[in-house]
Amino acid sequence: MIKQLKTIFGLFALLILCNGCFPQKPQLKNVLRLSCEDEPHTLDPRQARDLATATGIHLFYEGLMRAQGGEKPELALAESYEISPDQKTYTFKLRNSSWSNGEPVTAQDFEETWKSVLNPSYTAPNAYQLYVIKNAQQAKEGKVAIDQVGIRAPDEKTLVVELENPTPYFTQMLASHFYYPACKALRSHVSTDPLDKKLISTNGPYLLDSWERNELVAKPSPHYWDRSSVKLDQIQFIVSDNSTAFQLYEQKELDWAGSPLAILPIDALQSLKKEGVLHVKPSAGVHLFRVNTEKAPFTDAKMRRAFAYALNRKDLVEHVLQGNQTPATRIVPSSVLPGPVGFKDHDLIKARKLFKTYLQDNNMKAEDLPTITILYPNGERQHKIAQVVQQQWKEAFGIETQLQAVETKVFFSQMKSHDYQLAIGSWYADFLDPISFLEIFKYKDNGTNNTQWENSAFIALLNASAIANPIKRKEILLAAENVLMRDMPVIPLFFNSYNYLKRPDVEGVYFSELGYLDFKKAAIK
Amino acid sequence: MLIYLAKKLFYLGCSLFAIATLTFFLMKAIPGDPFAEEQAMRKDMHEALLKHHGMDLPWFVQYQNYLTRLLKGDLGHSLKYHGKSVNQIIASGFPVSASLGIEAFMIALSGGLFLGILAAYKKGGWQDHLALCVMLLGVSIPSFIIASGLQYLFALKFSVFPIARWGTLSHTILPALSLAALPMAFIAKMTRASLLEVLNTDYIKTAKAKGLPARTVLLRHALPNALLPVVSYLGQLLAAILVGSFVIEKIFSIPGLGQWLVNSVSNRDYPTIMGLTLFYSVILMVIVFLVDIAYGFLDPRIKVKNDE
Q1: What is d(CA B33, CA A166) in angstroms, rounded to the nearest whole number?
Q2: Which A residues in the span 122-141 are in contact with B, Cβ-Cβ below 8 Å?
Q3: Chain A touched by B153 (CB under 8 Å)
Q4: Mean pLDDT in order along chain A per 10 residues (525 residues)
């Protein structure tokens, strides 16, 4: 027996020795290390749906424009562009640039990528982002031939795009990953594996170096047209749990922790704020309640408004969430659409009056109301919000609401089948224009609406907003938002903020309100 | 022996088929959709995606397709992580989970045996009380608390080991200890109880009466028989520990298989759920099979029975 035990321990010692043979990586100087909760799902720009993936796409690819914080996006692969007098035709001149395999990036690359997205046989979840282009939607639905879509490349360096309507935010859209080019191998399905380094080439400031063991590593691309602007030697994305990432940052093993790719632990926020090390970036995202307008008592707008006015959002964000969020009494953040929209927060007088009117109209007492249930996906933050709101409505109207926390996929499934009364949710803009917030509520059958609400005046106003005059357009969009807030199929809660930690020597990372990070000009001081 | 092996392999195949079928239907029965997200897809796109992955077909066609692919050794591709096949996921995650698992297994086994033998040998003494105390703590404290405690003590306070991540031997120590705590306590408890029982049997008394030293009686005569129940537990333990622990992998940011399995369920990543469940089953069954054979070597009575 002793002999056998000795053999076992001998094997164990051998295993430990083998374990110690992990390759040691060479030390580089300008390395940026970030934490992320999840790794990118794909590196095909046509398939990106989540923040981690979008961040990867912005790293490895580049489009005609690039958002860098100014009011308008900067020129990227487009050297210049012209807009026709009717604001419907854009003609881009492309600069000399190459793919990572050395081949030139041409106007045909853009044309073919966008047309591949609009091909009815290709499953592209973001195809609708291209529907501002002439005939794009009809082509995707198979109603017109793909060559009738308003995208043309007369020569290698010229790209002409015709739009359905004047779209003042089109250049903003061009700076999003929805409009980035994909290489020929991906377009022609030679390889469907975006990680296939032999076949897949990219055209952005960085190249994929390795992607294994919870770690994605990027290095500067030698073929990038603006190589001199790229200062970092390496970027490492480390997938880790939020609390672990925070500890890793504290141990100086990370240079960036928290938003947008992860979340800082709520318990740590207060002390970080006191220490003055917490960075805050307002986001183009609103957290809200979706209201099922076909389930009593919320079939009546009075009741929806009563519930919206009764909430004390200031209390919620200051004492519960504590993450520098701002109370939202409208759907579009003021930074995206400045204007006098919105209602008074915690307006108990108005709320109780509306509640009473509803009861009188329906000859009911508060006890006769059907049970009201708040549906939300499992999670610490959502649970806290639900509990606070439950208490606030109890104080305002003396009614009990039920809380129903479900698994995320079950939550979306219930939302889709409209099996809910009130559901906690959020919306983050795809591009910085009010239409990105308002359009989701345009039609009842829009997958993200889910409130069963549709309003002809709202639809007419959104349709009328497809004009070039910015002042008039702003007025129309404000009017549309007013309609939404009058009918209240969604109850706004707060505008979110991104909280993150960053080492003082990290510079030049552009953090967009949309939640994307751009590392092109990032450097370590 | 050959017939015995063939029989075992046949049962193994049948069990795998049953598991594959059961997992397939259970997975389809849980509500939720792999493509459902906050930013809901347009209906036409959603339908196109379901079609693309063959999920619009009747269940029996899907089941048939699945079994056909399985027989070819193709576990399919992840629905969430494009371009990643389940085979690739296993190939990248299993070695990590397995090496950590074996390390934890060895710690649990050596620590457990040592504590158990010590406690039985010094029954009633302070060593026994100390060992019992360690066993009680190991069994009752959840692994994530032990993990956080170890992180605080050895990484944050004394900076002896890295707090998380994977890459060098020192990265493996804290997670292996956290993983090993519970089975170690369990092995120690079993060894102690079993040894005490054996020590009361007649043949041990005879050995003692013959004047053999207490150590020899314990290690040479009592221990081999006392270890039988421990060996049967080791099989299950090894299978469970090899495929990784979700909690420990999450706390220490370890790129193992445990996280993949749990996340695939919450993502409704059907091919990954199916592939990993089957893989886990194979590991479990092979190890149980090996333990059965090992039993034959350890206990002559079983060997005779099998040969008959």
Answers
A1: 37
A2: 123-125, 127-128, 140-141
A3: no
A4: 55 51 61 93 90 93 89 92 96 97 96 95 90 96 95 97 95 95 86 71 94 89 95 95 92 94 90 94 95 96 97 95 93 92 93 96 93 94 95 96 95 92 94 93 90 96 93 96 96 96 95 92 93
